[in-house]
Structures are given as structure tokens and as C-alpha cells.
């Protein structure tokens, strides 16, 4: 028996619509066009029934942290639901890169030269490549993935020289800090490099991310309810 301890107003059938409404209001408040923000429903570690409920409500854009987990549950969903778009938002090991590229529509965690060269080689081999976001470690945290802010411009140039389809940047702000500072820093690095995509904002801070230009928000628990176990 598994017990969930989600708040009663989270993870029910209204949650998806409520988040969509809040995104629409945040777009308006920031004078941004309707629909300019993509909602990635982060389904990692969630029971299949909850994921299915969100698919049944018509949502098609999902995020997963781990290639293994994504490969275990999404092929079956994709057979049953058309138009699923899967985003890998967690760290990617080079030995899982091929599997990831065959499965997902976008990778948000390109964070080091070795991974970039591997993706470039595989893109040649496969004849296609998912949309890519470069993860920036805006808080310069030891335990967190991402290229350091001071190295971001060089790394973006390196990825472009490899012909990788870099759409934008991604960050996960440190838990103890004001996320807006990190969103602003990410937006600044993107702007000076001519990148339009900004993958930033989670359940607790997506409205602030939208105010600062997020194009992709990654929302998990506010849609599905609390995760039973924290995923990396
Ligand atoms: C889990 C996760 C999210 C979603 O977090 P919530 O707080 O549940 O919305 C977003 N981005 C990344 C990279 C994650 O690992």
C-alpha cells in the first residue's frame, strides 16, 4: 500500500487547468502573447494513473529526469496517445545519450563539452537531434549540474560550432535563494548570446519565471501532487 500526502488541492483533476490559468494570467501580466509559455508537466516518479489522468485531459508535453525511467514508461503511453512531446530535464550521462536522443523531443541538461561532442556525433549518425537547452549552474553550487555562468558564453559558442540545435538555456535556482535573481541572470546570458528559449520556473516559482521571460516552465508537484519519493 502506498500513501500519498499531497495537499488536497494538488494532484486532483483541477490542478492542470488551474496551472494553465495561472500561466495565462502571468503571460498577460508580463505583456507576453497568449501561449508563449510552454507547460512541461514533470511526471517523474508519479504513478501511471496520475500521468494517464493528465493525458486524458489532453495535455501532451511531459518532462522526465531519468532516461531509464522515461524509457520504461513512455513508449507505452506514446502508443496510446498521439502527439506526446517528451523533455529530458535531468542530468544525462554520455552512455545514455543515444537512448535519450531516440526517445525525447528536447534535452534541457546539456552541461559539458564531452556531452556536447557526443550529442553532435550521434546527431550525425541518427540524422536528427532533439532541441537542446544548455543548463547553467547560476548558483555555482558544487552539487548541481550545469556550466558555470562565466563559462556559458564559450560553451554556447562551442555547441554552435558543433552544429547542435541550441534553443536556449535552463537553470534550477538554489533552494535557499530568491529565484528571480537566477532567472534574471539566465535571461541576461541568453539575450547576449541571441538565444530565445528559457527553461526556468517550477511549481513554486513559475509565475516569477514567466515575468522574467521563461518560454518553458517545468511544473511537477503542483499538477500531479507530491512525489512519493524525491527524484534526483
Ligand atoms: C522535479 C523537477 C521539476 C519539477 O519540480 P516541482 O517542484 O515538482 O514542480 C522541474 N525541473 C527539474 C529539473 C526537476 O528535476
From TrEMBL:
Coiled coil: none annotated. Its cofactor is pyridoxal 5'-phosphate. Pfam families: Ala_racemase_N (PF01168). The modification N6-(pyridoxal phosphate)lysine is found at residue 44. The keyword Secreted does not apply. Residues 15-227 form the Alanine racemase N-terminal domain. Belongs to the pyridoxal phosphate-binding protein YggS/PROSC family. This is Pyridoxal phosphate homeostasis protein. It comes from Ruegeria pomeroyi (strain ATCC 700808 / DSM 15171 / DSS-3) (Silicibacter pomeroyi). The lineage of its organism: Bacteria, Pseudomonadati, Pseudomonadota, Alphaproteobacteria, Rhodobacterales.
Amino acid at each position: 500500500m502506498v500513501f500519498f500526502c499531497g495537499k488536497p488541492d494538488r494532484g486532483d483533476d483541477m490542478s492542470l487547468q488551474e496551472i494553465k490559468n495561472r500561466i495565462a494570467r502571468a503571460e498577460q501580466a508580463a505583456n507576453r502573447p497568449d501561449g508563449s509559455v510552454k507547460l512541461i508537466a514533470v511526471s517523474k516518479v508519479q504513478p501511471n494513473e496520475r500521468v494517464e489522468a493528465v493525458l486524458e485531459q489532453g495535455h501532451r508535453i511531459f518532462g522526465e529526469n531519468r532516461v531509464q525511467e522515461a524509457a520504461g514508461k513512455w513508449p507505452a503511453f506514446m502508443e496510446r496517445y498521439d502527439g506526446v512531446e517528451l523533455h529530458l530535464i535531468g542530468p544525462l550521462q554520455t552512455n545514455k545519450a543515444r537512448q535519450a536522443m531516440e526517445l525525447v523531443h528536447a534535452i534541457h541538461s546539456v552541461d559539458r563539452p564531452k556531452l556536447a561532442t557526443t550529442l553532435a556525433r550521434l546527431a550525425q549518425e541518427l540524422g536528427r537531434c532533439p532541441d537542446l537547452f544548455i543548463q547553467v549552474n547560476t548558483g555555482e553550487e558544487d552539487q548541481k549540474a550545469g556550466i558555470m555562468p562565466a563559462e556559458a558564453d564559450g560553451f554556447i559558442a562551442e555547441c554552435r560550432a558543433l552544429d547542435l540545435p541550441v534553443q536556449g538555456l535552463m537553470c534550477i535556482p538554489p533552494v535557499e535563494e530568491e529565484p528571480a535573481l537566477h532567472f534574471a541572470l539566465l535571461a541576461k546570458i541568453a539575450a547576449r548570446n541571441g538565444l530565445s528559449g528559457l527553461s526556468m520556473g517550477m511549481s513554486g516559482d513559475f509565475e516569477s519565471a514567466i515575468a522574467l521571460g521563461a518560454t518553458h516552465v517545468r511544473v511537477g508537484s503542483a499538477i500531479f501532487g507530491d512525489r512519493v519519493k524525491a527524484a534526483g
